Amino acid sequence: MNKELVHQTKFSAGADLTCTEAITIEPNTTKLVKTGYFLDEVLDGVVYMLFARSSIAYKKGLLLMNGVGVIDADYDKEVLVMYRNVTNEPVTLDKDERIAQIVPMNYITGIYKVKDQERSGGFGSTTK
């Protein structure tokens, strides 16, 4: 089942992703948080950027471990959010809590050579 994403306001650049289940992240640890969202289709020239919601960093002390997530249009697994707890206390994200924003962006193609390679994973596993 794929969650439907919606813009919160008329001028929102992205849509909010939510947790599929409550999860607690212990101090100074990193966890992948499930969102229940999968990219619907491969769109040529579109990349999806994953950003932390400012309230998650400010109020909960969680940082998106890789700064900004880059999700290629051919990524077909569940979109996960990699959060690091930089506080000294456990932090819990509640089921259905808005935890990140996903923003589609156009990019320029044809600048670099392309290997004839099909995607075989995610999180740095493209060439494994």
Briefly say what this structure is.
The chain has 128 residues and is mainly β.
Question: What descriptors fit this protein?
Answer:
four-stranded antiparallel sheet; 128 residues; Deoxyuridine 5'-Triphosphate Nucleotidohydrolase, Chain A; mainly beta; 1 helix; three-stranded antiparallel sheet; 9 strands
Secondary-structure blueprint:
Elements: E1 15-18, E2 23-25, E3 30-34, E4 46-52, H1 54-60, E5 62-64, E6 69-72, E7 80-85, E8 91-93, E9 98-106
Helix content: under 10%
Query: Class in CATH?
Result: Mainly Beta
- Unreliable stretches (pLDDT < 50, length at least 5) are none
Radius of gyration: 15 Å
* Series of secondary-structure elements, N-terminal to C-terminal: EEEEHEEEEE
Description:
With 128 residues, the protein is mainly beta. The protein has one domain: Deoxyuridine 5'-Triphosphate Nucleotidohydrolase, Chain A (Distorted Sandwich), CATH 2.70.40.10. Helix content is 5%, strand content 34%. It is built from one helix and nine strands, in the order ββββαβββββ. A four-stranded antiparallel sheet has the order 1-9-4-6. Strands 3-7-5 form a three-stranded antiparallel sheet. A two-stranded antiparallel ribbon has the order 2-8. The longest helix is centred in the middle third of the chain and has 7 residues. The mean pLDDT is 87.
